[in-house]
């Protein structure tokens, strides 16, 4: 892809859990990390939205700071899609929503859920039909045989996030002025972020 945009969308209302962080850290460290992640998820809207835009580049160049993207996820997604033609927009959104449906079906069938996974979306502006969406960051996971309660919670979190991403793209397709739809949210988030620099706080 010579003329392409990449969007890394972190999936879920909750980036991690205390049980998951304990696998790599001592109990106190795990508790602190889980608490910090919970706060950041809430601050940047992941808790309500079900996802956050973690990275966004056009032809290899970053569009905005990580914290700005996270807090204004819907705005930047709409901004990216605005540059497509009407036909290109329909093609790209069909590719993305189909990929999401396939991922949800596969995860349900295999009874596995991932923590801190992302949906990587590559949009080809020269040939929208070559655009792709795939699941990445699959290092941390739980299956129904590992821990049924933890699996059910993680699966619900992940499915909600994926479906919310799909809903956002569909809403943009059906709205003639998606940028205006999310502009107020962007302004409010940028105002809140000026007093709090959390750009590198997601780890």
Low-confidence stretches: 16-22, 194-203
Radius of gyration: 17 Å
Strand order of the largest sheet: 3-2-1-5-6
Strand content: 15-25%
Separation of termini?
29 Å
Element-level helix/strand string = EHHHEEHHHEEEEHH
Write up this protein:
This protein has 203 residues and is α+β, with helices and mostly antiparallel strands. It is 54% helix and 18% strand. The protein has helices at 18-21, 27-43, 46-49, 66-71, 73-82, 86-110, 148-174, 178-193, and strands at residues 4-11, 51-58, 61-62, 112-114, 118-124, 132-136, 141-143. The chain has a five-stranded antiparallel beta sheet with strand order 3-2-1-5-6. A two-stranded antiparallel sheet has the order 4-7. Helix 5 runs antiparallel to helix 8 and helix 6 (86-110) packs antiparallel against helix 7 (148-174). The chain is globular and about 45 Å long. Residues 16-22 and 194-203 have low confidence and may be disordered. Pfam families: IPK. This is Inositol polyphosphate kinase. One of its GO terms (molecular function) is kinase activity. It comes from Piscirickettsia salmonis. InterPro entries: IPK (IPR005522), IPK_sf (IPR038286).
């Amino acid at each position: 892809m010579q003329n392409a945009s990449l969007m890394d969308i972190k999936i879920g209302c909750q980036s991690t859990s205390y049980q998951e962080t304990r696998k790599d850290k001592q109990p106190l460290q795990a508790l602190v990390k889980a608490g910090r992640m919970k706060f950041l998820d809430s601050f940047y809207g992941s808790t309500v939205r079900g996802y956050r835009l973690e990275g966004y580049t056009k032809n290899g160049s970053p569009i905005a700071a990580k914290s700005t993207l996270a807090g204004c996820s819907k705005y930047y997604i709409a901004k990216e899609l605005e540059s497509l033609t009407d036909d290109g927009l329909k093609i790209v959104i069909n590719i993305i929503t189909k990929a999401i449906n396939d991922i949800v079906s596969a995860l349900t069938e295999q009874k596995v859920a991932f923590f801190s996974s992302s949906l990587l979306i590559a949009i080809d502006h020269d040939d929208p039909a070559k655009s792709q969406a795939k699941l990445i960051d699959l290092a941390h996971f739980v299956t129904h045989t590992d821990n049924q309660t933890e699996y059910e919670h993680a699966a619900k979190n992940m499915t909600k996030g994926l479906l919310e991403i799909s809903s956002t793209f569909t809403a943009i397709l059906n709205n003639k002025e998606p940028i205006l739809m999310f502009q107020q949210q962007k302004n409010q988030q940028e105002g809140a972020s000026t007093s709090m620099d959390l750009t590198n706080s997601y780890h």
